[in-house]
Design brief:
Length: about 375
């Protein structure tokens, strides 16, 4: 059986960052990803990142992705692509398929950086062609250069809904409206301002009640909702669209952690059930680490920092760093993470992701 000091499942921002840190420490590391190209969400993100210089502010997502790939090549990270992983076992054996053949690789340490999947929304007609996730639409326009539709309704006003709406407009689509069930837009004001300046109507306190069409989406009915999010009779509105994009949240892809037997907790603000982990990103099972959206949905900058934490921690556990060296490196990463997690008005969140999860673990044990 092939062996590697560290095996990373997932070649997105968190996985690549983790691999770079292990290789930088002098470790042998293998990254396995089911896609034909590494980089994950970064290569769909044509907008510039926010934050500070150390968070690569002003750099577009795909350029950050290119930089990560260059580092993995320079450091000799072994990347296996087009290889879906369908099992991780207690002896740290990772089983994956490549070219129709089952393969196995064992790692002394395992880092799960599997990301998240888009949530769906059920309504009459939601199975019609033309209803898709906002991430799927973003892949079509920014990666495959295919316009998913000419008249688009966006459902959800978080950052994904706002950013993809603007990028659809840049690609030549007309965004006929943005629907948000809550009373306010939930994404950053800078993103909301862009689509408002483009003349996109924003329907807060509204939801989709049905999609209509013969074999594909032709119209959509939206309706105002009350404070209990129930449709108000007589408040319906019909819009002519050929595409409905759903930006209604993400759920961590945690199946491998479940099957391994990792302990979980439920934190709605992080996407639902997430593996419990400590500040080193180590899960409840020794030698199993999590990083990125599997540990709680945030954004790409945080995912990369968590990947770095997991990579440094795994390297320390392997003896590639002394505890003093690792503490210094992890301290620098945590400083950047805490800056990223500052509140909207600069007021730091009271509890970090790991602290919230550990608090849940303590209350559960009590």
């Amino acid at each position: 059986m092939v062996e590697s000091q560290v095996v990373i499942v997932g070649g997105g921002p968190a996985g690549l960052a983790a691999g770079i840190e292990v290789a930088r420490a002098g470790g042998r590391v293998t990254v396995i990803d089911e896609n034909k190209k590494p980089g994950g969400q970064l290569f769909k993100q044509i907008h510039k990142f926010f934050g500070s210089k150390e968070h690569l502010a002003g750099v577009r997502g795909y350029d950050i992705g290119k930089k990560l790939l260059e580092e993995t090549e320079e450091l000799g990270v072994n990347v296996i692509l087009d290889a879906p992983v369908y099992g991780v076992f207690e002896d740290n054996t990772v089983v994956y398929a490549k070219d129709g053949v089952q393969n196995k690789i064992r790692g002394e340490k395992i880092i799960l950086a599997t990301g998240a999947t888009e949530n769906s929304l059920a309504f009459p007609g939601s199975d019609l062609p033309g209803v898709m996730g906002a991430g799927a639409a973003q892949t079509m326009i920014n990666v495959n250069r295919v316009l998913p539709g000419k008249r688009v309704l966006m459902v959800g006003s978080g950052n994904v809904g706002l950013i993809v709406s603007y990028q659809l407009m840049q690609a030549g689509a007309e965004v006929v409206g943005l629907v948000e069930a809550g009373p306010n837009v939930s994404g950053y004001g800078v993103h909301a301002s862009k689509i408002r300046r483009g003349g996109v109507p924003v329907y807060t306190s509204h939801t989709v009640t049905r999609a209509m069409g013969e074999g594909e989406v032709e119209k959509v009915e939206i309706c105002e909702v009350d404070s209990s999010y129930q449709p108000i009779p007589g408040k319906e509105k019909v819009l002519e669209v050929d595409t409905i994009c759903l930006a209604v949240g993400l759920t961590p892809m945690s199946e491998l952690a479940w099957t391994l037997g990792c302990d979980f907790t439920h934190i709605p603000s992080f996407g639902g059930h997430v593996p419990k982990h400590n500040e080193d990103m180590e899960a409840s099972l020794n030698g199993i680490y999590v990083a990125g959206d599997i540990s709680g949905v945030e954004e790409a900058s945080s995912a990369m920092e968590e990947g770095r934490l997991a990579g440094i921690s795994a390297s320390e556990a392997l003896g590639l760093y002394t505890s003093e060296e690792a503490a210094k490196l992890k301290g620098e990463v945590w400083k950047r993470l805490n800056t990223l997690r500052d509140g909207e008005f600069g007021e730091k969140r009271r509890l970090s992701k790991a602290e919230q999860i550990n608090r849940s673990r303590r209350s559960h044990n009590e």
